[in-house]
Structure formats: C-alpha cells, structure tokens
Amino acid sequence: MIVKSVMLPLPPPAAFELFTRKIGEWWPPDRRHTQDPTSEIFLLQSGRFYERAQDGQEVELGHVRSWERPSRILFDFFIATGPEKPTEVEITFAADEGGTRVTVTQSTSPDPAYLPRGHHGPGPGRVRKIPSGERLRRRGGELRRDRRRRQVRSPEAEGAAGPVLLEQAF
Fold this sequence. Notes:
Layout (H helix, E strand, L loop, with lengths): L1 E7 L3 H9 L2 H4 L13 E4 L4 E5 L5 E11 L3 E6 L9 E10 L2 E9 L27 E5 L2 E5 L4 E2 L11 E2 L5
C-alpha cells in the first residue's frame, strides 16, 4: 500500500473540484497514455475515467466506484495492472487547519507489463514508503527520491495563498 498526502490552501469542495474536474491541468504531459501531451483527461461521477487525444483516440484509465463529493472518491486504476487486476485508489479530502489535506491511498503493486512506455513504477517487492511530498524517479537504473512538484493555478487559491501545489500521485 502506498499513502501520500498534500495540504492545499482550499476548502474541501474546491480541492475536490481541482482533483476531479481539473485533473487534466495537473496530470503531467509526459504521463499521458495516448502519447499526446495535449490530451484531455476525464474523471466522471458516472464512473468513467479516461483520456482522449486530439485525434479522438481514447484510453480507459480506470472506473470510478464511489463519488462522495466533497470528501472522498474511490476508483479502480487500470494503468500498470490492467482492467483484470486494477489498482484501488482512494482519495480523501479532509478539512485541516489552513485548507484541505488530500490523501491518496493506492493498494497493490503495479505489474511492470502494464506500465506505459517510459514509466517506471516501484514494481512488486520494491515498494518503498516515501515521505509525503516526494515521489520516486528512475535515474541510472535505480529508483531515487524525486522532490519535484507540479504547480496548478487555481482561481480559488490565488490572492493570499498564491498557486496551489498538487502532486501527481500515480
């Protein structure tokens, strides 16, 4: 199991919207599964979770199992494991001092056979707990901590709080 969390200077409903409706704004272009860095990503209450390239190609990324606005979303994630053995991902949005603590819990290890080209997950038997705010990246054949973060501008957070930081959690 992998658990990560980040504080956002937003109330829970705005953090939920940032994660769900604006998912394409913070999802890294180099992690697009259609190989189109300008593709759109949709995470829908109806259950569909997919990516659509500009040429119309679609990739099913998963399936939403529970949508509890503004506190929780639960979905099966197909990338890295396939739809036959999805990874379960739960995201919770809890009010905390100064904003919302977003916690992502991912269960099961990715199967390297399903990893998209260029993506290096920790793989079975090599899952490491890493501090919140960090992720792993491959460099020189080994996994190292990567402290890079994605910046997402949110109108709700502009002003006193400035840009909102939201990690790519997959």
